[in-house]
Structures are given as structure tokens and as C-alpha cells.
Design a protein that fits this description.
seven-stranded mixed sheet; single chain; 29% helix; alpha/beta; 16 strands; binds zinc ion; six-stranded parallel sheet
Length: 374
């Protein structure tokens, strides 16, 4: 009798402890890099968070120009890595040690995930967390965002809650494209009334144009030949778009500024030619704010650099990250100062992401950014 009772109690307890529910899947679909020009959707284990980490279920992501460099083998990452670094999602699981978050909350996570504790972070160099380019972890040194689930390291410093009045589409480009682009105007210390030239109007350059406007530039000249991007540049705040394939861009900038050239020149492509043009379009004492990722060798022409005596400043910025950066960017969107939805020209499901890479890589159909829905 006592045995039966005990058994009944145990059964009851057992059933209570494990409620009947759907079997939780343990694997997910993810875009895996296997070598140059070899990417594909594979099944991968859903990550589990360790102390201080979180796992989010990705609801929207995108493809970055940097991912194209990875795909071509121009930026080396290890085989088997899930790539992508621009996530919006719902908190799926929280590791121990996190406070102020609950499962199910919608969050934006920056492409750069600083630890907030190392000597670089505590010196304010968040993007260089732990060492050169060390803040960039997703799809670089750890698995990235082009997947159904994503492990977020140092989650307390990196999960930025998305206000209810912002959609996923309004938030996703803040993770990298806008944070990087706008940072060019911030690092260049654009002052109200400045003349600013932005060389190249890809997604990052377009956001640099928006950044120059946000910082109060008086006159913004975009340099771009593609008609779709030129039109978008005007929408983002450019007063004039100079087509460098039809005229000498530097001469035209000189003419447009009555010979004064610009106070801040932003380079958003990463070639010797655009770097040089940016320097030639810059006044003495001005700032060349460089966003491009250069390959091979970059040399400085001495004449526009006044042989080193022109008080020119050359600054570079890797995408600023961390939850406070994301919060500030979301404030710009919430209050109508920045709308990046027009840049999301195409949408694909995660299953069709390889097609999206082709479209984005070949710049077909007027594509600017692709939204990927896992
Ligand atoms: Zn990127
Ligand atoms: Zn750090």
C-alpha cells in the first residue's frame, strides 16, 4: 500500500515536472562557409548559452559587403563557420548571470560585440575589444547570424531591446550598415555648416551621407555613378550627386564649392583611387574619414597631402557596437530622423540565401540590401 502510494506520488510529480509539450528541436538551419565560393544551408546544432551568454532566435538578418569578401576568400575565416553579423531576434535562452532580460524579448545585436571589460573596452575602443578588430566576432571568429539561432557573447553588454514602436525592418540595418556609415561623419567630426563629400554610395556610403546630414553638414556631395544609388543618395541627404564616370569628381567638387573644396571627405569604397580623390577634394586641415576596407597596398600621394605639412587628419572607424550604441541609433529611427527601410530592396527566406548572395554580389535588379528571414 505504501509502495503504491509512493509510486502514485512519484508519477504525479514526474508528470508535473515534465509537462507534455512539443519536442524542442536541437538542430537549426544555418548558412555555412566551407571555402572560397562554397556556401550552403546546413543543419547545425542550436547553440546553448554559457554564463553571461544568450541565444536568440533570429527573425531578420541581412548580407553585408564583408560577407562577399569572405565568400570570395578575400577575408579568411575558418571552414565550417556560420557567417553573417547583423541580427534582430527574440531571446530564446539566457545563460546564468544576466539581469534585466526575459525570454521572448525582441532584441537588436550590433555586428560588433564588445566584452565591456578588457583594457580596450575600458579605454573606449569597443570595436578593438581584446585586440585589433577583436570586437568583430559574429561570422568572423564565432558563428554568425545567417541562421535560425545565434549565440550572443557578453550578452549583458550587447542585447539591445527593441522598442515596440520599431519593426524588425526599421532596426536590422542599425547593427552594422548604419552604425558604420554614420560613424564616418562622427569620426570625421563634421560640424554644422561643413561641406562634406562622400565617395561611393553603396549601403555604407549611403548611411555616411545620412550621417553627414544628421551631424549638421551644410552641403553634402555624393560621388556615385549608379542611377539607383544616386537617387537613394539624394533621399539620404545628398544635395548633389557627382558621376565620376562622366567627369573628374575632384574638379567638380572644386567647382561646386567655389574652389574651397570640402571640410570632411568620407571614403566608403576601399580603393586607392577613391582614397586619393578624397584627399584631393579635402581642404588643408580637413579630415579624411575612411570606412573602406583596402587590400594590397595603400599609398598617400604627397601633393594633396602637402608633403605632410597640410594638417590633414586621416581617421578610420570599424563599426561601433554594444547595446548603448544600438539604443542611440534606434532613438534616431523612432523619432523620424533616420529611415533605412528604403535600402532593404529585396527579401529572401533563409533557405534561398544563396540566391540572395548572387543577387547582392552581382548588384542585380537595383539591389541595395537584402532582408533575410530565417
Ligand atoms: Zn558588415
Ligand atoms: Zn573588450
Amino acid at each position: 500500500m505504501a509502495g503504491e502510494l509512493l509510486e502514485a506520488i512519484m508519477n504525479a510529480t514526474f508528470q508535473e515536472a515534465i509537462p507534455k509539450k512539443q519536442v524542442v528541436p536541437s538542430t537549426m538551419r544555418a548558412l555555412v562557409f566551407r571555402g572560397p565560393n562554397q556556401i550552403g544551408i546546413e543543419q547545425a546544432p542550436i547553440p546553448r548559452p554559457g554564463p553571461g551568454e544568450a541565444v536568440i532566435r533570429v527573425t531578420l538578418t541581412t548580407i553585408c559587403g564583408t560577407d562577399l569578401h569572405i565568400l570570395k576568400g578575400e577575408y579568411p575565416v575558418k571552414s565550417g563557420l556560420v557567417i553573417g553579423h547583423e541580427p534582430v531576434g527574440l531571446i530564446h535562452e539566457l545563460g546564468v548571470g544576466l539581469t534585466g532580460y526575459v525570454v521572448g524579448e525582441r532584441v537588436l545585436v550590433g555586428a560588433i560585440t564588445p566584452c565591456g571589460q578588457c583594457n580596450y573596452c575600458l579605454s573606449g575602443e569597443w570595436s578593438q575589444c581584446g585586440g585589433p578588430i577583436g570586437g568583430w566576432k559574429f561570422g568572423n571568429t564565432i558563428n554568425g547570424a545567417q541562421a535560425e539561432y545565434l549565440l550572443v557573447p557578453n550578452a549583458q553588454a550587447n542585447l539591445a531591446k527593441i522598442p515596440d514602436d520599431l519593426s524588425d525592418e526599421q532596426a536590422v540595418l542599425l547593427a552594422d550598415t548604419a552604425s558604420t556609415g554614420i560613424s564616418a561623419a562622427e569620426s570625421g567630426e563634421v560640424k554644422i555648416g561643413d561641406a562634406v563629400a562622400v565617395f561611393a554610395q553603396g549601403p555604407i556610403g549611403l548611411c555616411a551621407t545620412a550621417g553627414a546630414k544628421l551631424k549638421g553638414a551644410g552641403f553634402i556631395i555624393a560621388v556615385e555613378s549608379d542611377p539607383v544609388r544616386s537617387e537613394m543618395a539624394r533621399r539620404m541627404g545628398a544635395d548633389v550627386v557627382v558621376d565620376h564616370t562622366r567627369m573628374d569628381a575632384v574638379e567638380e567638387i572644386r567647382r561646386l564649392t567655389q574652389g574651397k573644396v570640402v571640410d570632411v571627405a568620407i571614403e566608403a569604397l576601399g580603393t586607392q583611387g577613391t582614397f586619393e580623390s578624397a584627399l584631393r577634394a579635402l581642404r588643408a586641415g580637413g579630415t579624411l574619414s575612411s570606412l573602406g576596407v583596402y587590400s594590397g597596398k595603400l599609398s598617400v600621394p604627397l601633393e594633396p597631402f602637402a608633403a605632410g605639412l597640410g594638417d590633414h587628419k586621416i581617421v578610420t572607424t570599424l563599426c561601433p557596437g554594444g547595446k548603448e550604441r544600438m539604443r542611440r541609433l534606434m532613438e534616431l529611427v523612432r523619432h523620424g530622423r533616420l529611415d533605412l527601410r528604403p535600402l532593404l530592396t529585396h527579401t529572401f527566406s533563409l533557405d534561398r540565401i544563396v540566391e540572395a548572395y548572387e543577387l547582392f554580389g552581382q548588384r542585380r535588379d537595383g539591389v541595395i540590401k537584402v532582408a533575410i528571414r530565417p
